[in-house]
Write a structure and sequence with these properties.
heterodimer, A: mainly alpha, 6 helices, 73% helix, elongated, B: mainly alpha, 4 helices, 70% helix, flat
């Protein structure tokens, strides 16, 4: 495969029985294009990542009441801070989508601006989260205090770690676009990055609902 | 049949003009913001029936995840998305089993568990 993007040719008689739905896979059209295979593979990875998170969520839910006489979730969480974090991540996800549209039409300037804004809001989110962690540890509510706090720092910290890795990836993507332009492999990496970034936002929806909103109330 | 229906679509792929794309993301952002704001309002509000709040919050969260999947990750119900949807359905099944299974089993264990050992010995020492 010399040209990276081998797309299936259009056959006028590819649907001889008029099923309305054309067979895919390695049927009439041959194997799917590399972009689809890469995107699908990354989607499988993201789902496995979400399954890993579900185990950590289950651990947190089970240990939520195990405070060992230490501070409870009602005493610790500041919902205003969480609302700002949520807003940052949501805007970041939205701007990431806009950057992907700019990348599709190969507009380097707007892609870079979009990615920069995406990263900026991601960094604000991360700073707020680290500030919250530092505050809690200063209050004596660090991960060693109780099983509840261990589970809390594992879950929210794991999401924060994903965001940090995403920011590193975003930086390298900006450098690669700058150095190599919009070649097909850069486009595929951008697709994977945007999927990763949007998936992090989905996990954050579960975090702010299960950890913060349910934790602050009940 | 338009050309992009001829084969599968990668998750995240969006076919259309720039304006279509921007409109899609803007609708997604608006809906997600609305659901998030409702979630925070529900959690802070004292005017709602208390026991219903956790269920309401879960419903809002699941709705918002659906919005993100549809408008940001472009997972659709079209025939070009069958593979992506099937993988997602399997993922959701496993997530459900892990979460519900853990909570169910652990709640049962807590219920069945006799008093922890150290408390038991404390009590024996008090009695003896």
């Amino acid at each position: 495969m010399s040209s990276a993007e081998v797309r299936a040719d259009h056959h006028p008689h590819s649907d001889p029985h008029h099923l309305g739905r054309i067979a895919t896979g390695s049927g009439v059209h041959g194997p799917a294009s590399k972009r689809i295979i890469v995107g699908y593979g990354f989607w499988i990875f993201l789902l496995s990542d979400i399954i890993m998170f579900s185990a950590i969520f289950a651990t947190y839910a089970v240990l939520h009441g195990a405070t060992a006489g230490g501070p409870t979730s009602q005493q610790l969480f500041d919902l205003k801070n969480v609302a700002i974090e949520t807003g940052c991540l949501l805007i970041s996800s939205f701007v990431c989508g806009l950057a992907m549209i700019a990348a599709q039409v190969r507009n380097a300037l707007w892609t870079q601006i979009g990615l920069l804004v995406t990263g900026l809001f991601g960094a604000i989110f991360l700073a707020l989260e680290l500030h919250e962690f530092a505050d809690m540890i200063a209050q004596g509510a660090g991960p060693q205090r109780s099983a509840f706090l261990s589970a809390f720092f594992t879950l929210v910290g794991c999401h924060g770690l994903h965001v940090s890795v995403g920011l590193l990836w975003l930086g390298t993507m900006m450098a690669q676009i700058w150095a190599k332009g919009f070649s097909p492999e850069i486009q595929r990496r951008l697709l994977c990055f945007s999927l990763f970034w949007h998936a992090l936002d989905i996990i954050w929806v579960a975090v702010f609902t299960i950890v913060y909103l349910l934790g602050a109330g009940a | 049949m338009s050309s992009h229906e001829e084969e599968d679509t990668a998750p995240g792929d969006d076919h259309g003009t720039v304006m279509d794309g921007v409109r899609g993301y803007a609708i997604g952002l608006a809906l997600a913001t609305l659901l998030t704001a409702t979630s925070f309002w529900v959690a802070a509000s004292h005017s709602l029936w208390g026991p219903g709040i956790p269920i309401g919050l879960c419903v809002l969260a699941i709705a918002q995840m659906g919005i993100h999947l549809a408008f940001f990750l472009h997972i659709t119900t079209g025939p070009d998305n069958t593979n992506n949807v099937l993988a997602l359905a399997f993922g959701v099944l496993i997530v459900f089993l892990v979460m519900a299974g853990s909570l169910w089993i652990m709640a049962n264990l807590n219920h069945m568990m006799p008093m922890p050992m150290d408390q038991m010995t404390n009590m024996q020492m008090q009695h003896g």
